[in-house]
Amino acid sequence: MAAGSTEVSSGTISILPMAIRSVILNVTATPSVAHILAESILPGLYTGSNSGLLLNNNSEHSLDSMDILIDLIKRFGSSISAAEIVKTENVLLQIISGEQGIIKKRAVTAMGLLARYLTDKNWEKLTAYLIDGLTESSDLSQLRILIQLAGILARSEPTRFKNDLRPVIDLIIRKGLDVNDEGITGGRNVHRDEDFDDEEEEDNADDDEEANNPELLDLREASLASLEIIVGLGYQAVETQLNDILAISAYYIKYNPNIIDDEDDQDEDIDDEDEDIDDNDDDVEMEGHDGGEDSEFEVSDDEDAFSDDDDQSWKLRRYAAKLAAAVAIYIPTQLPRIYSQLLPPLVSMYASEKESTVKTEVISCLSEFFKAASDKGLYYSSKLSSNIATRRSSDISMATDMDPKLFLERHYLRKLVRVSLSELHSSTNTVILQSILTGILGNLVSVLHTRPSIQTSKIIRSLISLSKTQPGLMIDMLQLVSGIIRAQTTQELTDSLPQLLEIIVLGIYDKYYKVCGAALDVVLDLVAIHSDQSIKVDISVLLPALIEKAKSTSLDLDTRSKAVKALGQFIAKNDLSGSNIDTGCKLILDLLNNEGLRLTSVESISEIASGATVRQVSSKWIISSLEGLGNFLNQSSRTLRIGSLNAILSVTNRQPSSDQATVQALANIGQIILNHGKSILTSSPDAVALDLVSKILTNLVPFISVSEASEFTIQTINQTSSQTAVQISDSILGLLAAVVQHSTDAAALNAVYEELCRPRHVASASAGSSIGTNQNVELAAKALAVVITEGQMVDKIPSFETVVAQNGEDLKWSLLVLGYVGKLLPYTTSLEVLYDELNNNARDEITKTVIANSLGLIISNNVNNYLPDLLNRLKAAGSNTIHLHLLIIREIVSGAKTADVEAYSDDIWNSLFTSLDAVSSSGIGKVALAASTAAAGIVPNAEASVVSGGDLILAECLGRLSILNPRVFLPQLQVQLASEKPSVRVTVLSAVKFTFGQSHDTYDDLLRPIIADFLALVDDDDTGIRQVALSALVSAIHNKSHLLLPHLARLLPLLYRETRINTSLIHTVQMGPFKHKVDNGLELRKTAYETIYTLVSTLNAERLQSVGMIDELLDQVVLGSGLSDEHDIKVLSCVIIGRLASTCLSKVIAAGRLHQITTRYTTLLGVVVKENAIKQEFEKHNEIVRNIERSSTQINDAISQAISKGDASNLPSDLELGEWESFYRTKVLKKSV
């Protein structure tokens, strides 16, 4: 009985863990179930006979119990009580410190899962245990376990782990990898002296000892793996230990105790080999390469010299390559140091490594190195742009000044190409590996732009050989061909293009549609580059292939459409014979009847007609094209109508032949366009269509009725809304000028003048107005000025001058007309009358603004005559008119010829700074500002509430001048940042902010190193300046993110600080019997949150990770205070969370944040608005609900996508996911339904 009982008990124990795990893994994840499981299972794991199953002497039972604990924490960790968490931590630490080696690894895994639920006190206990253990332990197995624990903690709790990171990294490097001040002492010392042979013998003996010690190899492997994880925390985390990490990676990348070799001599051999290569050896043929005799593309293949079945050192080389790749990915700002130390051993192992897994990892690492050195990478995008050719003579051996691209080109390009081509032709490599190798070559071409061209020749010859024997690689090869075409210079492409054409043609004729599509993409790249660089190579061999594919009915529609597009661009941008033009053009014309290819054919017609190299298309083709395109203007598809108008414009832009048929066709299409334009005016006006119609009619005025064109022009000007007037202004004025020029009837021309001269009401400014008036009125004034100047009606000008002089009823209208006439015709009369009216205190602000801008228009066309007098008047201007004088200067700076402005730039600059105090003290100019901000595009509402209108106008002038001469004026702006006057600092900041919307390479290069000095005014003592600085930061993120990225580590802490509620800015206001709290810092906080939203919306996931501080953003800003702040900030916080979930899901759901989000969102959705509340309260609540729903959907979609991809390693416990799923289903989906 007893024996039977024992037997049953043993069987029960062996089955029990499986049963418990099955329950844990399959039960529904709810809080109640989680509590039941935790209370039922955990006590049995800790207590009972033999101190609980986890501490049982039976290793099998302990492992099973540890698996139970791991599954329980994974699914229900958030439901375990605080007491049980502490007890679990103690038990796990006891196991990690114990003698049972098998269970330790799983205990480390369990501790990594448990870490997120530890309180700060227990976390400190854990890190203290880790540091003490690494410091005191000398047992290799125990050190390996502790180092693995450090890596797992760094991955699971990166934010908390960063505080204890430095001592842990030091201990890993010192104890795990035997690195001291002299270098790596666990093997060959990386800093050894070559003269000491005895030391070398000792080092080699150490290598043998290390290679024959499995525990030591495991310790090294764990150390490298943990360092890889820690490097992923970013540069700030490993800044002080980076040199050691690079040395470790370089050492273990080449670590192979089976090879006795001096690595320094090896590196020298690489350089010597590269320098001694004879460029004339390029004639080696690749055809028939079967691995027989050695060629320039082969690497020594003596397997026996390296074979050792018992050797496990390859694991260290593989992890070292992973570590090197992590350094390149997460610390790209230190690329020169990384390249100088890690590229030599990587290239060496790329050439000699025989272990396939290591070689694959080395190839992957090299790919990351090349990506980091691309122009779009963080290192080069954040550096000054420069011409590499001017630095070729620099000493690139110096890591401080080393250019990674030059280092790669000079020392390793030849070997990389040689090894890659040899591997590419190896019959033992799989197609997948060959595809990866082709990608390596493509990255090299992209990074180095094929310098020197001799290496490109080798690549091209190899591709020609492979294209005939490896059809499975055609897509990869075509992508490489495209990269070569984009990277080569004109002369290089001229030499290599005949060979590349063979591959392209082969790809076009390929039956597989993806290959054909890739080849057509190459053609599109080639056509653009071929025409732009004027390459003297005949590429007409492509034409028959393009025509065949465009004709083919067996191809899918997308590929055929691409063929039609390529054919159109090919004809448009290549100087072909007449017969070839006719063949291709006729085919495209015929394809207008194919509905699926119609739009592409229309676009191709537009390309051909506008092609600069098409000497003369046939008149018959022009006539047929116009007929077909005219028929599409009645189609319901707006895209097709706009495309047809664009094509008609391209056709009419050409110089048509004078034969009768063509003239008649142009007259017919002109009438069709006129009718179409009138129909647009009678329906909802389409600004884009009206703009195109006006441009077409401008070309066709000689072929149509001038009176009808004039009638349409006047009708458009009179009926156009202010918004449409902004978009069609240039085109409709061009049409009016053409009508006036071709008008032979003086009476008709006078009628046009009288119609436009009709006085118009000049009201307040509308969007886009530069002079404080309605845009449609402004357009009418411009049109009247065109009629006066083009129609030789200068005698009409005195009538407007009389109205101004006599203060007539239509004063503002006359001022507008005079201003635009002066802009077109040099004005020579005195402006004294206008200045008198400007200083007339009886005038309203709108009238003064119109006067100021009219003066600016007149002076901008005659700077030498009028500007000196204006600058004198600016110095003498009173506080009530100085902003008007600044309006005049702004119009001059923005509208005058660049040469004229540059001649007076110093005088203008000095006058502006002299006037700054007067402008700031005046406190006026807001009306003028409202009349002109839209055109300037520099003043958001937040800034307008802080800075006076005069300051902002002055800031725009300073900004424009600094763009004209940045070398002189930008440093002067920087100096003014130290001014004690807030008005000076804010004006300088606004001036620089204005320039963010401009694109000038020289200016950007000079601004790059000092941009943070301007934006650091976020830390200014003045609240208003801080708000303007935040607004400038938003603009910089939008327009100059490549300049801003290197400085974000300095700026983000300042930005995050502005999101906190500042109690010193909150005060109580007595309103009758009631007291009301006023938060003067609310607008500042809102601007800070808008800046954060702009940041997370503009930067991609990679850039966000490189910027760092996402954990602080989520914990302190969004979840810490954002969701409990005022309404607008709550809305922005929801939007920020949703955006971050789409780009950095692991950050959003880590460390219990998903539970916090669920709780906060539930609380916000549960708010009930009182029935008697005002309408705005209901609207605010509905807005919060909408944004929570949108944010929740983004989070849920990101989680679902991660699960579907199998990327569930960083997901929270099943209980949290279950809680989220329940919330999403019941609170979000149900509410939205």
Automatic annotation (TrEMBL):
Bias kind Acidic residues: ranges: 195-212, 260-285, 293-309
Region named Disordered: 184-213, 260-309
InterPro entries for the chain: ARM-like (IPR011989), ARM-type_fold (IPR016024), CAND1/CAND2 (IPR039852), TATA-bd_TIP120 (IPR013932)
Pfam family, one: TIP120
Gene3D superfamilies in UniProt: Leucine-rich Repeat Variant (1.25.10.10)
Domain of life according to the entry: Eukaryota
GO biological process per UniProt: SCF complex assembly
Repeat in keyword set: yes
Domain TATA-binding protein interacting (TIP20): 1043-1204
Alphabetical UniProt keywords: Repeat, Ubl conjugation pathway
Family: Belongs to the CAND family.
Name of the featured protein: TATA-binding protein interacting (TIP20) domain-containing protein
